[in-house]
Amino acid sequence: MPEGLTAVNEAIKASSGIITKIKEQIGKVIVGQEKLIDGLLLGLLANGHVLLEGVPGLAKTLSVKTLAASVNASFQRIQFTPDLLPADLIGTLIYNPQSGQFTTKKGPIFANIVLADEINRAPAKVQSALLEAMEEKQVTIGDHTYPLEEPFMVLATQNPIEQQGTYPLPEAQLDRFMLKLKIGYPTKDEELLIMEKMAQTSRSMTIQPVITPREIMTVRKVVDMVYMDPKIKDYIVNLIMATREPAKYNLEIVDFIEYGASPRATISLGIAAKAYAFMQGRGYVVPNDIKAIGPDVLRHRIIITYEAEAEELKVEDIIQMIFDGVEVP
After folding, report:
1. pTM flag (> 0.90)
2. Residue-range definition of the domain harbouring residue 177
3. Could you give the CA distance from residue 117 to residue 97 in angstroms, rounded to a whole number?
4. What is the DSSP annotation of 162-176?
């Protein structure tokens, strides 16, 4: 390991306490859902967008709103509906008949944290407008291009149980999200706590902002400092290559993968692994970091075949086979 690792560890000790503070604030409202909260924080630290998938009532929207409240930054929630237009998202030009001039009215996308609620309910034009802003970090209204505020993070939710009246995100556009989190039901004990905390007609829980946008940018610089050994980098590339050419890694899953992960997956896995190591209070990445966040980075980037579905294999099963088969450094 490099000599500067001690300095990196000291920087992490100095700044990683903010993670605990944010979790404390979120814990005032959210019971359990640790994987969801960790995923949201990972996206915030790694400068990545997050897609949340789960049935209604699992606190997806509430978690995002609570995270935004704990960050002293601008927040906008957009409820996606079939009649939504791109202008409702990014803004538009408004004509003033008195002056004869057009003025720009910016849309709700101009915020630090944007919640796209039920993203699969809006048509392709609106989804494309959002995803373009996610990738380019800028929006064009008329003849002018406006940079979006930093940090800029999109947290989108989608409901997997309804197909009628929805517009599924194309696989190529799903690739813009760094993580896709699948949210499950709480345990019985957690459900009891949820009922005790939330089953009342009036609820008022004050969330204190514990970090500013400028501090987030500073913490991200510390995340960039996390050391990644060349063998770990090679391991990440091997995992991604195994999704495209599994036979080269002696994996008998060629018939189960239609398309493998893109280079964007390699980048996302590298950045997310550093952020995960930071959250563990470490200044270096280990193989278990890759395994911990691998499914969230890859599940929406690997397209499985009909043969896999016929064998009742899910994409998570394929990912597990890849992690089991690729040699760990």
Report:
1. no
2. 18-198+208-214
3. 35
4. --TT--PPPHHHHTT
